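Translate sequence into C-alpha cells.
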Amino acid sequence: MGGRIVTMISEADGIELSAAFEHPDSPAVGRDAGEVAGIGKIGVTIEDSIDKVMDKGDVIIDFTFHEATVKHAEKAAEAGRAMVIGTTGFSNEEKARIEELSSKFPCVLAPNMSVGVNLLYKLLEMTAKVLGDDYDVEIVEAHHRMKKDAPSGTALQLGRVVAKALGRDFDQVAVYERHGMIGERSRKEIGIQTIRGGDIVGEHTVFFCGIGERIEITHKASSRDTFAKGAVRAAKWVAGKGPGFYSMQDVLGL
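Result follows.
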C-alpha cells in the first residue's frame, strides 16, 4: 500500500510527497521512496520513525498496524498534524482512543478508502431500510493470504451500516462462524464469513435473502490503487480542516 500511495501521489495534482517512514526493521529504511515504489528516484528518503517526518508535511497517511497507528495518532494529536488512517484491525478501545484524540487534530479514519466501497455503504443503508426484517443478511469477504485481521474492517463496517439501518446493535447480532448443530438461524443475526487465499485484493458481498428472492450487492477490488487513490483524495480534503473525527463519507459528501 505504501508503494501504491507514493505512486498515486506522484500522479495527482495539488499534493506532493514530502516524507516517508517505515518500521525501523524494514529493509526500505534509508532508500528513496520512489525507487521502492518502482517509479524512480524522487528525492524522498524513507525514515525509521514518524518523529523524523512529523514536521515535513501537512497530512500523515497511515496504513500500518493497529497498535502502531494508535501511537502515531497520539504523536499527530500532540503536533496538531492532520492524519488519514487506512489501517484496520482496531479493537473498540483503540478506535475510541483515536476518536478521543481527534479533538486535538483532524483525522479521517476509514476501514476502506475506496470510493466504490463508500458508495456501497450508502446503497446498503437504503436497501436495508426498504427490506427491513423480512430479509436475512449475510456478508462474505475474501482477501489475500497475507492479510492479518479477520473479518476485514470493511466487512465489519458493512455489518454496522446494515445493523444501524435496521435498528440493531451490531455487536449483539453479529455471527462470525457456524459449525455443527447450530439450530435455526435467528431473524436478527448478521452473519459474516471470511475467505483467505492467494492474491485476492478484496471482495465483499452482502446478501439480503428473502423468501422467493435474493439480492446480492458486491464490490470487487482488482487493484490496491483504488484504496491508494481514496487515501490521496482524503489527504487533500482533510488538509486545513479543523480538529475532528471524519470518515470517507465526509470526504465524499455522502
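Note: The CA atoms of residues 111 and 153 lie 5 Å apart.
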